[in-house]
User: What shape does this take?
Amino acid sequence: MSNNSTVSNPLLEAKSWPFEEAKRVVARLQGKVPEKGYVLFETGYGPSGLPHIGTFGEVLRTTMVRHAFQTISDIPTRLFCFSDDLDGLRKVPDNVPNKEMLTKYLNMPLTKVPDPYEKFESFGHHNNAMLRRFLDGYGFEYEFQSSTDWYTSGRFDPTLKLVLQHYDEIMAIMLPTLREERRATYSPFLPICPRTGHVLQVPMVEIHPGCESIVYRDPETNELTEVQVLGGKCKLQWKVDWGMRWKALGVDYEMSGKDLIDSVKLSSQICRVIGGRAPENLTYELFLDQEGQKISKSKGNGLGMDEWLTYAPQESLSYFMYQAPKKAKRLYFDVIPKAVDEYLQHVSKFESGQYDNPAWHIHGGPPPTPESGLSFNILLNLASVVNAEEGSILWGFVKRYVAGADEASMPFLAKMITYAVRYYQDFVKPNKQYRAPSQMEKEALQRLHDELADISLDSTAEDLQAIVYEVGKQFAFSDLRQWFGTLYEVLLGQEEGPRMGSFIALFGIAETRALIQEKLA
Assistant: This one.
């Protein structure tokens, strides 16, 4: 395969968004290997609060683009997960312990702020470790990079010199974007005060490119202070920092949220001023919480990675992240069952060479063979009907329905059963509301009860679904949707439910008749 990524037609014709993004990177390279010898994908993280699911999603999506690129090019790639952990702690997050202690360390670099959890060297180290734990749990191939390490080791020094040399041009880019009050104090450089250790936001009194230093007035002592911009004695304002980093590392691809559109534009201009080339960029929409508000790592709203993985397999979270990255989506507990079942549907439909099937991107290639054909939703409804407190009771029904089913041969199904019981106990059970049927609904339910008495115990889910349909047609429901709503609300105590034929086949004909009789009584 050549470096300009000429491959077989199926790959060239793939239209899924990771391939579209990968083709942009291919076009950027124009058939040449970068001087650094590899293509660099980057994701950024601000560890001022605990890593949230949006951070995870950015790494996952970037990994999907990287994998798509690797299938259409033989140029080596690397993925940097970069933490801006030299930034100052500007406010205390809402969702951490020992808040009072943290207030004493405001404006200190995050890697100098004590860990409120008392587990790591600093708050920055703690949050970095949290992110890495999640990423490692998914088996991502990435290289973690620390802003503190890059600044203090001097690896950023050559590019910091360029920023200082182009100080006036960078100021000309930034100042028009700021409010008048901020304009008066703005500087691309944030000196780290040798007296207090604080990351200062102060105006520059003098700049000395020849000496690689800057002079500012100490806001507390009013004394002029000169510091080097090298060796971690200064850091950059983040928009300037972003553009500097792209130049220093040679970043080829980085995606970012919709709230950073203007920042990408400014950082790209700064990168060009100091002789770099901005990376290819995908702007993704933001995740929203239950109330439709943007999720925030400082507020701790929305749904976290640990929370999702308490109730569903990690593949479903990957699928949720894969879907339409340019569309805003609510990220709350009620989206989990749908995500699980849509993932299972794509796996069941996968055929060799289907590079646009989401399952191919989720698994980095062909997905595993489907195990049982049972959906998460149907297991959830089974748990609801039998009021399951543990998975063993569901296994009794599943083993009767799926020949040879057990935890050893069907590990994914075993996980789904565990998740279904957990989800039922925490979210479905507290909200169950049965309603009494109307007279017509009683008659329809009685008819279904009687029809099921005459059907063979070997009937398929399709046979059972046909009976449910026929019974509904015999009564004056406005449409079959109303009939199925009756089944869900009267029998299951919820507004939505499973495909009834499949549910009856799993639950059992005799058990379903007994359930109907119980509700009619």
User: Anything to note?
Assistant: Residues 53-72 form the longest helix (20 residues). Residues 9-284 form a domain with the Rossmann fold fold (CATH 3.40.50.620).
